[in-house]
Amino acid sequence: MNGRCPRARCKESQADSLLNPRSAAHRILSEVRRGGFADESAEAILPEVAQKDRGLALEIGYGCVRLRTRLDTWIQAFSDRPIRRIDADMLDWLRIGAYQLRELRTPDHASVNETVQAAREVMDRRRVAYINAVLRALASNTNTDPFPSHDTNPVAYLTTWGSHPEWLVRRWLDRWSFHDVSRLVEHGNGAPEVVLRMLSDDPKCIPEGVELRRLPDWPRSFAIVEGSPSTALGELRGVIQDPAASSVVDYIGTCMPKPVLDVCAAPGTKAIGLAATVSAPVVALDVSPKRLRQVGRSAERTHLPIALVAADARCLPIASAGTIIADVPCTGTGVFRRRVDSRWRLDEGRLKKLLVLQRDILESCSSIVKVGGVLVYSTCSLEPEENEDQVEAFLERHREFRREPPSETVVPETCLSSAGDLFVRPWITGTDGSYAARMRRTA
Q1: CATH dotted code for 14-140
Q2: N or C: which end of the chain has fewer CB within 10 A?
Q3: What is the pTM of this model?
Q4: What is the CATH T-level fold of the domain 242-441, as seen in this structure?
């Protein structure tokens, strides 16, 4: 007779059904390869992983997405076939093993054996043998350097070791020095801090288990060093927001003509910051009702007056506004560390389509700004076509608007362009990137 109690057998059964962290990482990679978003895929898959293993699963999954071409270069050095001829599922297992060996510095036996064992559960013997052979070769040849020289071929170096798309690397090198671009690429490959923006006074009664670190250059911003964001938000009046995004609210200033309209508002952190700053109702508009509900939940938690409107910003159902913040869809090249798969979704065709959308949103918003009102255009992009070029073209078409940077701002001077626009450069600030221009309607 089995002496174990039913509860013990139930716990063992549940443990047996949980995903190995490497298997979970492989499922995240598979979903991304099929067109899914990394964060949404992880959110769906991680509940199937033991709590203690979720951090490892996320680290491997996100790391393999970020460093895809770096890992592929390592794999290619020890593979007897071109990367393009390796089965996609096999390649993802190889990336998982390579990431542990080269980036996490996991001991060889754990990196190889655990990965091979996880692959064996879903793959045939022949393919598992190939994965095992390549990973063992990678583990035993630690002195091999398969990467191009950054001195003689900086583009290839930043594309492979830097793991960024070649077309984007070339664009950046046309504008900035190799030193700056390499710092930008390195920054984009890192994991972001979780930052709390306080909406009122500095935090005094910090919840137990939460440790905050003030970010000296950014008013109201505190990195969460220990503890969960949900615990911090449960007792502190704030929002989770990177300083680069917070700086857009700070750049706008406190004297905003009313009413205030935030278009493309979801997930709503800027709308929350605006409502707390102007002490007046804010209208948050977004095309996605689902994402708009997220704004509503944040407004309810922070007890701020935010009205929600589901609509397309290119066809506004609002007659007029004193201040409009158009935080438009963009390439997001300033937030690669946060959106781990976005670099691989971009190409120049996507950029051109976004430029048209941004122009259409600007035109729509400008038509309802009151005389004397303010139009703020912002992105989380580093690309001039989406930023200053878009603004300059708008001002050429609309002589009734003029640039009007805030007379006083708490934004660091290094984040202001010669024209007075906000431009946060990640490799200088250590934050995300962002851009904003403030324009006044005069007629």
Answers
A1: 1.10.940.10
A2: N
A3: 0.91
A4: Rossmann fold (3.40.50)
